[in-house]
Amino acid sequence: MALISYLTTVHFDHGAIALAGQECRRLGIARPLVVTDPGLAAGPLLARLREALGDLPWHLYGDTPANPTEAAVLAALGRYREAGCDGVVALGGGSSMDLGKAVALLATHAPPLLQYALVEGGIARITAAVAPLIAIPTTAGTGSEVGRGAVIVLADGRKLGLISPHLLPKVALCDPDLTLGLPPGLTAATGMDAVAHCIETFLAPAINPPADAIALDGLARAARHLERAVADGADREARWHMMMASMEGAMAFQKGLGAVHALSHPLGALPQRLHHGTLNAVLLPEVLRFNAAHVGDKSARLAQALGLHAGADVAEAIAALNARIGLPGGLGAMGVPRDALPAIAEAATRDHCHGTNPRPASAADYLGILARSW
After folding, report:
1. In the chain, which end has fewer C-beta atoms inside a 10 angstrom radius, N or C?
2. C-alpha distances out from residue 147 to 43, 59, 170, Å
3. Whole-prediction pTM value?
């Protein structure tokens, strides 16, 4: 039986950030904690949010790390409690939004975070009491603003997913203007994160035709506009379509992801703290090759969405796209030590995305994918 659920309220257009104060009041948030990262905390986008919040008293946690950690969650939670906050506004990329979700969870649920991880049976422990959260993305990649999960590096070193419909932000303010001027490298990496989401959710075996259609629409938008956005940070049309592609990829998450994410999650927990979207981009070609004989006509449908001719090699097209937009050619170039690969392969078999890959994978299979992606 298919479970199909779309629950998040989304305001999507240029200037949507202006609705932040209005939406806080509608949700009953009188004293929000703004969660963001150090770069944004010192930049003009926070000033725009301050203006949008108007006379609401708000407090700031601006130290979100690139891969959010349990320690950072607890630090932000301390700020939330000492300031008497009653809701969270997450401004930033996937890291800030995921950290904001974890803060909203622990604001009303007892620690530690580990008990709420999906692989630890946590979905049944997360209740509707989660504090209200407004998500405002400043990159076009993760789609966390409409996702029901948060991925956190826990105190034991594992990067695990907290998954529950109660973690969905109450409101997403998707303002493409917030991505204008994003550097080409970050535009490329986050854009390929959106591409990977659209492809993996489409290939996941669950039956959900609406999610399939949304994922293919997002992929087609990214195929037409990602290189434009990388080439010209001021291209407002390209930025609009990339933010829509990002959101659509995450709207289809309910189908599940696959081997790309099963591998990128433990890779993201390495001390190098590698960028999630770049990892997904580098892994995607080899995972597509691994899955190719197990997805029926879906490869042809992916080719069509990408604007390729019938029978085109989708994996080769993705590898070529990575090269054109300046992403690394392999995990080795990103600084992944080769001797770390066996442990990553084993960890992938325990990741929550492992079970929804279209082809069952063993630790040996994962090690092969990693070696060919290195």
Report:
1. N
2. 26, 24, 11
3. 0.93
- Can you give the pLDDT at residue 67? 87
User: Residues of the chain with pLDDT > 90: what percent?
Assistant: 90
Q: What is the 3-state secondary structure (H, E, C) of the chain?
A: CCCCCCCCEEEECCCHHHHHHHHHHHHCCCCEEEECCHHHHCCHHHHHHHHHHCCCCCEEECCCCCCCEHHHHHHHHHHHHHCCCCEEEEEECHHHHHHHHHHHHHCCCCCCHHHHEHHHCHHHHCCCCCCCEEEEECCCCCCHHHCCEEEEECCCCCEEEEECHHHCCCEEEECHHHHCCCCHHHHHHHHHHHHHHHHHHHHCCCCCHHHHHHHHHHHHHHHHHHHHHHHCCCCHHHHHHHHHHHHHHHHCHHHCCCHHHHHHHHHHCCCCCCCHHHHHHHHHHHHHHHHHHHCCCHHHHHHHHCCCCCCCCHHHHHHHHHHHCCCCCCHHHHCCCHHHHHHHHHHHCCCCCHHHCCCCCCHHHHHHHHHHHC
Q: Is the pLDDT of residue 109 over 80?
A: yes
Residue 173, judged by CB atoms within 10 A of its CB (0-12, 13-18, 19+), counts as buried
* Mean local confidence (pLDDT), 202-219: 96
Q: What is the pLDDT of residue 159?
A: 86
182: left (phi over 0), alpha (psi -120 to 50) or beta: beta
- Specify the residue for token string 């995972």: 287
CA within 13 Å, CB half, 224? 16
Span 119-131, average pLDDT: 94
pLDDT at 315 (0 to 100): 97
Question: Could you read off the pLDDT of 273-310 as tens digits, one per residue?
Answer: 899 999 999 999 999 999 999 999 999 999 999 999 88
pLDDT of residue 5: 58
pLDDT of residue 1: 45
